[in-house]
Amino acid sequence: MDTTNFATLGLTSSLVSAVTALGYEEPTPIQREAIPFLLEGRDVLGQAGTGTGKTAAFVLPMLHRLAKESAKRGTTRGFILVPTRELAMQVAEATHKYAKGQTLIVVPIYGGAPMDQQIRSLRRGADIVVATPGRAIDHLKRGTLSLAAVQVLVLDEADEMLDMGFADDLEAILEQTPEGKQTALFAATFPKRLQSIAAKHLKGPARVTIAAEKRAAGKLPKVRQTAYIVARPQKMQALDRILEYEDPQSAIVFCRTRLEVEEVTETLQAHGYGAQAIHGGMLQKQRDRVMGLFRSQKADILVATDVAARGLDIEHVSHVFNFDVPLSPEVYVHRIGRTGRAGREGVAITIVDPRQSRLMRNIESLTRQKVEIAALPTTADLRARRVSSTIEALRATLAKGEFSELRSVVESLAQEFDVVDIAAASLAMLDDSGRSGAPAPAAASQTDTAAEPPGDRQRSDRPEPFAILKIGAGANAGIRPGDLVGAIAGEAQIDSSLLGRIKIDDDESYVEVPASKMRDIVAALRATKIRGQKVFVAPLEQRPARR
Ligand code: AMP
């Protein structure tokens, strides 16, 4: 196992704390590759697109270097060029976060924003400037920005800058930077023009790519792969809806950071799912507890970081969810390998930010498998899905034929109503309960097992309903709960943990028993004695069970 972490890369402890506080557990491949070269002071030519963690790959070493020279505070020593205003804001924000605890000042400058405000910020002193090329040229011409003291220059998404027609601006800007600076150039693709800019301005660069090894499709497990394109603010809602639609038996939801794991877990729990978090910031004891719950299927959703899930051998995962496109295609392959074990078909679902679609294409080319892009299930889809699972469950119950006690109920209703109406009304009640989360009607009720999370979701793998067994003897005959449990467990061979509540009145007792076992229990108890006497035994009715 690779034990590289942010500290072993050689970063200062304050940078390591900053990324740990953000919930990062380990460097991404591009960070692992590029950071050591940049810390050595070498120029770097990196091939990496958005969503690979490239920002931290160049910002962390830049901060490491600039923090050392406190005498030069306030002069622009770090300069990052990016193609768009949006990226400028994003990179500046990320830099600010990574620089937490240091006094370095980061200023973004981009077009479309008032010039005088940016001039004031630059005048106050900026250690790191993040700029779009056009606006950088404006400031250079006005003399409000100087690149004379730049020690570290980054060209981020350089191919995009060329595509947007900034080639001449780039050249002009590079001319104004000092000879001895360190330069890092990142791009997803390397067209000719970019290669020649790199050849002219980078000195003996270390080349860093995260070109993924191709993997034979045959080696991948059988997994249905789907992606949903969803903007960041709607991701949680989307996950909720997909979970409801897929109704996974057992799922792992992968997140990038510890913080995200905690947020997603809390939200899922609040929505009634049996979700449990696992990440590298937890004590081993806590992790073991969570794994115990997941293995015994008392928690049906595990929300995990890659680090925490690594090395866990979990057999029964029906669905893997990627709350984000993973930071490298290898991680994707590793994640989806958690499902589809033992020849069963698994399901892998990825929620993709529109900006990350390139990453999805990298993944497809690595796995040589198509990932289907789907539209989120609509409310109508959810309803149709519920109806079809009700029908499935109904077919199964009809096939088993273990409902003779209820036939008499239907027969008596049939004297008043049409049989088809009775059946349809029963279904409507079931459907209602599924939608509102209200207690289910008698025939469809289920227990909430103690290990289930708070909330009122109806699960398809619900425990079976209870029916009430009436026994014609009670406290006056000296009957105690243990006698009833003993008789049922002993005579009918029913595990006592399957029994529900027991109520002992003066002359009668009642026991909640699994409805499907009622017939066997009645037959067994009729053939035996309880506390030495023959007793009246009969099903009372079916009723929602509680614990
Ligand atoms: P970037 O490719 O730089 O745009 O980063 C993509 C996303 O990954 C950002 O939201 C970062 O905060 C996040 N990120 C970067 N590095 C890591 C890491 N080592 N672990 C977890 N998340 C990361």
Structural overview:
By secondary structure, the protein is of the alpha/beta class. The chain has helices spanning 13-21, 29-40, 54-66, 85-98, 115-124, 133-142, 158-163, 167-175, 192-201, 235-246, 258-270, 284-295, 306-309, 329-336, 357-367, 379-400, 404-414, 419-436, 481-492, 518-526, and strands at 44-47, 78-81, 106-109, 128-131, 152-155, 182-187, 206-209, 223-229, 251-254, 275-278, 301-304, 319-322, 346-352, 372-373, 466-471, 502-504, 509-514, 537-542. The protein contains 20 helices and 18 strands. The strands form three sheets. The chain has a seven-stranded parallel sheet with strand order 3-4-2-5-6-1-7, sandwiched between helices. A seven-stranded parallel sheet has the order 10-11-9-12-13-8-14, with helices on both faces. Helix 3 (54-66) packs across helix 4 (85-98) and helix 6 (133-142) crosses helix 8. The two termini are 45 Å apart. The model is unreliable at 434-462 and 542-547 (pLDDT under 50). Bound molecules: adenosine monophosphate. Adenosine monophosphate binds at residues 24, 27-28, 31, 50-56, 256-257, 327.
